[in-house]
Amino acid sequence: MSGIQEDDDLVFHKISSLLEPLNDKGIKLTRETDLIADLEIDSVSVLDIVMDIEDNYDISIPVNTISEIKTIGELVDAIHAIKKEQS
Amino acid sequence: MSLFDKFQNTAVLYKSLLESTGRDPFGVSMDEMRGPTRAIVEGKEIVLAGTNNYLGMTYHDDAVTAAKDAIDSDGTGTTGSRFANGTYAAHRQLEEDLAAFLGFKHCMVFSTGYQANLGAISALAAPPHDVILIDADCHACIYDGCQLSGAETIRFRHNDPESLDKRLSRLGDDVKGKLVCFEGMYSMFGDTAPVKELVEVAHKHGAMALLDEAHSFGVYGDSGRGVCEAQGVQGDVDFYSGTFSKSLASIGGFVASNHPELEYLRFSSRPYMFTASPSPANVAAASAALAKISSDGSMRQSLWDNARRIHAAFTQLGFDLCAEAGPVIAAKLANKEEAFVAWNFLMENGVYVNLAIPPGTPNATSILRLSVSAAHTAEDLDIVVNAYTALAAILAKETVSA
Fold this sequence. Notes:
Structural class of chain B: alpha/beta
Shape of chain A: globular
Order of helices and strands of chain A: HHHH
Number of strands of chain B: 15
Strand content of chain B: 15-25%
Oligomer: heterodimer
Strand content of chain A: under 5%
Number of strands of chain A: 0
Number of helices of chain B: 14
Helix content of chain B: 40-55%
Radius of gyration of chain B: 21 Å
Largest sheet of chain A: none
Strand order of the largest sheet of chain B: 4-10-9-8-7-5-6
């Protein structure tokens, strides 16, 4: 995670705030939290959250990429990579 | 066991739904069909209001006679794909008739509507330089077409031309082909697309537009050509896809276009090449239904009359409906559990509708999805409205006591 502290990571916080309304079980969100297994969010809801992230950062995240993402940390990394690529 | 692990959550949900009433909403068996709007289920005759039989032509004399005659002359099955021995004169004729009806120069017939989208999208867009943009609420067959294509796929917000515009603007210079996919009428909520605006945005960015009118063909527009006809942009879409399994009372699918290159799909679209062609009876029934739709608007009129009656009645009952009056009238329920109880209550009261729950629905909503038919009689509709009236009373009571 190349030295970026979770608490300092704005992307992580942005994603957490988008996921919080769907966190029915009230579990603590970390980079390791699995979107589908831990949060029990269905695949389409994950895509919908990603759409909010896309509009927030003005980037496009392909469905192909999202389908390979399991955890919040992987989503954060994917956003960093795409931001770099598309900026 | 590990292969089966991934089904556990869904299996638990289904089991709990089944146990709460002893009835499986996704496994209803129509034990005996009694016409386009009636069937015997669990020994009792019920009204079918979740069949997509919009024009009610599955028992129409023209379609039935044509299908029987086709079996007599061409046999029960083609035993081959369109690419090999499965193209008969009737398949070619139906392609010509569909193209003529819709005002396109070219048309390809597939074995199902699912395969029409799967076949067109997967063949048209290819990695690594093509990109597909799809409306977020597109049907599973469009998502699957993207997956089979392997091309980069980007969702835009449902019915939102501006969202599409933004995503097309973001694409890099290395992108070659761009395909934008959306539907005329969305099957779950019954809402219609701003086709004109979406096509304009697509073309502005040099993208091609594929419009799926599976649920709107035969229903929307002055002559039943779909939502694009209703919005006056019929010839503007690059690809028009549809199905035989709704208004055409059969099974099969098609893609029409003015681009002569559509013909290339005959030797590049795997879902076209590697499955048996639609049977002679299916093709004949669809052809007969198409001829009837082309010459007689009365079924469309009946459908709309019935749709307006149901929509007005449900609105008065206080149901939270997902769209304006149309062939699909979906009511939102509080959650999966309430939707299932409501669905089961309607079954008990002699009405079959579709229970639709996430992830098969937009915005994680749970709905009772009713599809109206031109074949619904006044008596059918009375039974439907009475059942929903009783349901509204029960839901109101629950809300008060909760």
